């Protein structure tokens, strides 16, 4: 009986299963990278919104009043909302300012805080 030097059907099927698993893992990794890039862009834009608000408060050189105020901002073609909270500190010459940024569906994206003093 003469034997051919080719692969058996089982060897070919095992090789196909290995390739399918490798491709599945690659697709899953690519999807995770895409989601991470999207999240990074969203957080970066939300941070720009929060930093712009805090910079505007500093540039007006007014001591912020204690309380809450809504905020809205548009960055990179996306709309963001949220709240700005000003609270007292133990030293009456300083106030804590918290900015909570949410996406257009109201989900929290970023919180940023700073301390502002009297000018």
UniProtKB/TrEMBL annotation:
Keywords, ordered alphabetically: Cell inner membrane, Cell membrane, Membrane, Methylation, Transmembrane, Transmembrane helix
Gene3D superfamilies: GSPII I/J protein-like
Bilayer-crossing regions: 6-27
Principal location: membrane
Pfam annotation, one family: N_methyl
Membrane topology: Single-pass membrane protein
Domain spans labelled Type II secretion system protein GspI C-terminal: 40-116
Protein name per its UniProtKB record: Type II secretion system protein I
Organism phylogeny: Bacteria, Pseudomonadati, Pseudomonadota, Betaproteobacteria, Burkholderiales
């Amino acid at each position: 009986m003469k034997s051919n030097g080719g692969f058996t059907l089982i060897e070919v099927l095992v090789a196909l299963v290995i390739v399918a698993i490798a491709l599945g893992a690659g697709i899953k990794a690519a999807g995770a990278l895409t989601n991470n890039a999207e999240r990074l862009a969203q957080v970066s834009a939300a941070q720009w919104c929060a930093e712009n608000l805090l910079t505007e408060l500093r540039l007006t050189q007014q001591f912020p009043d204690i309380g809450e105020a809504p905020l809205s901002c548009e960055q990179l073609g996306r709309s963001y909302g949220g709240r700005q909270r000003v609270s007292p500190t133990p030293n009456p010459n300083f106030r804590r300012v918290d900015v909570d940024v949410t996406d257009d569906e109201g989900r929290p994206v970023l919180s940023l805080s700073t301390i502002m003093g009297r000018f």
